[in-house]
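We append the chain.
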Amino acid sequence: MTSLVTTVTETLRYRGAIGQWSWVLHRISGLGVVLFLVLHVIDTSWAVFYPAEYVRAIAEYQSPLFTIGEFALVAAVVYHAFNGLRIIIFDARPNLWKYQGQAAWAVLIGTVVLLVPVFLLMLGHVLKFYNSGRAILPLGEVLAGQVRFIVGIAVAVIAAMLLSGLIGLVQGGTTGATRQRGSKLERFWWAFMRGSGLIIIPLVFGHLAIMHIIQGVFDIQFTEAAAEAGIFAAGAVGQGANVTGTAVEFVADRWNTLVAGVAVWRVYDFALLILVVIHGFNGLRYVFTDYAGNAFVKRALVYLTIIGAVVLLVVGGAALLQSVDQTAIEEAQRAYEALLQSLR
């Protein structure tokens, strides 16, 4: 904690120019993306396992709080991707490091230039939704819906601390051989972060374009006016009309879309899930270990990242391997109609 406080205070005092602030923004944007990743993977899995909860989750995403968060998320992803690409290039070509200041400015400017049209397109979805007169979940209900995630994270923290204490008792001191193996492992993770980053950029940009710009979170679950009028258009990435107008049927249509017999969006989402979860939680491990001086705390934080990554991979993977059946869609429709009734 002392190390973290020192880092924050010295960052504000230190005049490191653009290089310092690009480092700070890279970490902050990465932390923001990981936080959303936890919510997004768990929420999406509910389309399979708890359809009514997924309907509720999308309604929460359509609230003003999450609308602001959506814009922040897109900004964080774009900046983190561009700056990560800068790091990859400069690591591969050390002779270019003399231009790192100019490159950092280019990343910042490029981020702003890209975000201007992206934000305008996203704003169109927002204004269309809010001008439709649809009732919005109250802020208190939206915040209450996040309590389960806080409880889940708290349970993971406790489990990581218990595991750290147990491993500490069993391991005792650290041998030279262990340190050598750790060094080799860190070299692997260094290479993985750069290689996975290159693959993630086009995948995550494609996902953002479809789910936040072309389709939009406000179109996943249709407005009350559209539902009452019976207006159900085909999803932008689905195979047919979303008859019930629910987010669950949207997911079903998307994951059941076949191209040459291949469920392309399941494969796409599998690749995105695996790469982003491992990349994101390993980045979180880097941040944690930078500020943990105590061996017990450091182990606990490392185990926390492992627990988080494993949970998301298992839950997200299990959802992708399942089918969203008609029963789930019907349950979602009933939940959606009840939600609309409660918001009138």
